[in-house]
Amino acid sequence: MRRSFTLIELLAVTVIIGMTTAAVAGTMLRAASSSSVSLTIERIAQLDNTARLHARMDCPIFIVYEESSHRLVAKSSRGLIARTVEIPEGMTFDLRPNDECTPIRIDRSGRSTDYVFALEGDVETTVRICGSTGRVERRP
Fold first, then answer.
1. Rounded CA gap, 55 and 75, in Å?
2. Which end of the chain, N or C, is surrounded by fewer C-beta atoms within 10 Å?
3. Which residues are CB-contacts of 128 (< 8 A; sequence separation ≥ 6)?
4. Which uninterrupted H or E stretch holds 48?
5. Residues 51 and 61 sit within 8 Å (Cβ to Cβ)
């Protein structure tokens, strides 16, 4: 006698596979969003380091958020752009200097005021950059 699967058994297996796939896909999407935030934070830290280096070699640098183009820009006092970081679509960016002075000015010794920025995508992250050292402190 030949034994085969019933329709109910096939449907049950299909439902279990579908639920497992949905759970894995959700986890992967959250991980991808988190890595996008981490990559943007790393790029902003590199922008800060580059700005400090340029300020020590040449002239004061200003870090400005350009809302219209959705990017963070490090400009010299002469108007030359040292570096830019594009903020990914779907991510909001909020730059908050501690002394409420924008743009952030990095002087010829490579120092600035401390400043904080918040990135919000699927995950909200707050990052503080120490003005005297450029050290990055991330707060989830």
1. 10
2. N
3. 114, 115, 116, 136, 137, 139
4. helix 7-57
5. yes
